[in-house]
Amino acid sequence: MLAVHFDKPGGPENLHLKEVAKPSPGEGEVLLKVVASALNRADLLQRQGHYAPPPGACNILGLEASGHVVELGPGCQGHWKIGDPAMVLLPGGGQAQYVTVPEGFLMPIPAGLTMLQAAAIPEAWLTAFQLLHLLGNVQAGDSVLIHAGSSGVGTAAIQLARMAGAIPLVTAGSQHKLQMAEKLGAAAGFNYKEEDFSEATLKFTKGAGVNLILDCIGGSYWEKNVNCLALDGRWVLYGLMGGADVSGPLFSKLLFKRGSLITSLLRSRDKKYKQMLVKSFTEQILPHFSMESPHRLVPVLDRVYAMTEIQAAHVYMETNRNMGKIVLELPQ
Ligand SMILES: NC(=O)c1ccc[n+]([C@@H]2O[C@H](COP(=O)([O-])OP(=O)(O)OC[C@H]3O[C@@H](n4cnc5c(N)ncnc54)[C@H](OP(=O)(O)O)[C@@H]3O)[C@@H](O)[C@H]2O)c1
């Protein structure tokens, strides 16, 4: 089968397609013939040599995919049969023509969505669901500050926050991105390149600050985050695009807010946790991708690249040009 491959860590020019052995499903696993996968920041980090796959995971890039079940391993429970369409969360391996996956990581594709749209759901939406509900304990009426509001995760988090009855506020680096976030349901958006988002957030919340922050930026935002966090607020750190170093009185500022700092990485979670997450998401959220749901959740796709254009897809994400997800179409 063909898979995205790189021989040594480095820039996008190192990526190419390579013929590799097709995997076989193990105990409780299915083999999926992949129609589409999507790009994540983790792929860029792994390509650069900064993010190794967790122990036991496939080292091929790709944290999500959509496709068809083509083989069942021993011990499968009969929830899935050959030919079923599905979308999957993966610890790696999605950017290949076939991938094996525990059957508990598969989700049905919501009616009316294409395979390309489905490939854009698992990683971003499961992450956003986990951050808001399992870690952030979002409540109706909460104000939630979502950084990188037009990112894959951000576009999902805005919609899920609205569905929970919360008030999403976002940051982004351009007017165009902020407008898109507002169309998805953000109550307000702040261009972090042009204004101090923490002052703008305090103004919007009439001095109270936000109850929850979803933060994939880290170092460069810490002081502004703690400044606009409400008393007893929760700050969920799940990425470090703005660096890992902190200099200054973080602890005293956080303590005087009685703030909670929570961190999260989904990829390294164990099988049991991921199965629980997939099940909860399938039951509570997937029905709301239907046209009939008053919430009408939508996966936001920016561009679709053929897998042969993998280098261009990485450059597009690395230069912060995407609004929503970048999807890769596999050769059939
Ligand atoms: N912990 C987990 O389990 C988990 C799971 C999934 C994703 N993530 C993390 O979530 C984040 C978003 O991922 P994604 O795939 O959704 O991203 P994405 O679609 O590529 O969007 C990322 C956006 O972040 C903004 N950005 C980049 N560098 C920045 C900086 N230094 N300061 C402020 N904004 C910056 C850019 O938009 P602007 O133009 O607005 O600056 C960029 O387009 C990443 O950090 C990723 O690693 C974590």
From TrEMBL:
Name a GO molecular-function annotation: NADPH binding
The answer, when asked if NADP is one of the entry's keywords, is yes
Give the top-rank taxon of the lineage listed in the UniProt record for this protein. Eukaryota
Q: Provide the alphabetized UniProt keywords.
A: NADP, Oxidoreductase
Q: Which residues form the Enoyl reductase (ER) domain?
A: 10-328
Task: Write one Pfam family the protein is assigned to.
Answer: ADH_N
Gene Ontology terms describing biological process: NADP+ metabolic process
- Asked whether the keyword NADP is assigned, the reply is yes
Q: What is this protein called?
A: Tumor protein p53 inducible protein 3
Organism per entry? Sus scrofa
Write the lineage as a comma-separated list: Eukaryota, Metazoa, Chordata, Craniata, Vertebrata
